[in-house]
Amino acid sequence: MPVSTPADDQPTRSTPPADPAPRPTRRAFTPEYKLAIVTEYENAPNGEKGAILRREGLYSSHVIEWTRARDAGALSLSA
Q: Structure pTM?
């Protein structure tokens, strides 16, 4: 019976299989969507704010950034 060496345990080198998963695309949000979410988030009771974020797949940092942009005048429907 042959003795196994560490080199025998190494997988053979071949070309890696093609990745079947497509590369994810970055989401882009319209100003209308951003303003609607900020308004809904601000008007929601404290216990329901997290539900809005989960429903939309957002983070609180999105809403904070969009609120600051709105307050600075950089986020408007006329742009």
A: 0.67
| C-alpha angle 8-12-18 in degrees, rounded to nearest 5 | 155
For residue range 6-24, list pLDDT tens digits in order.
Answer: 555 666 666 667 778 888 8
Residue with tokens 């939309």: 56
Angstrom distance (rounded) from CA 13 to CA 68? 52
- Rounded CA-CA distance 16/73 in Å is 50
Does domain 27-73 sit in CATH 2.10.10? no
**Distance of alpha carbon 75 from alpha carbon 69, whole angstroms:** 5
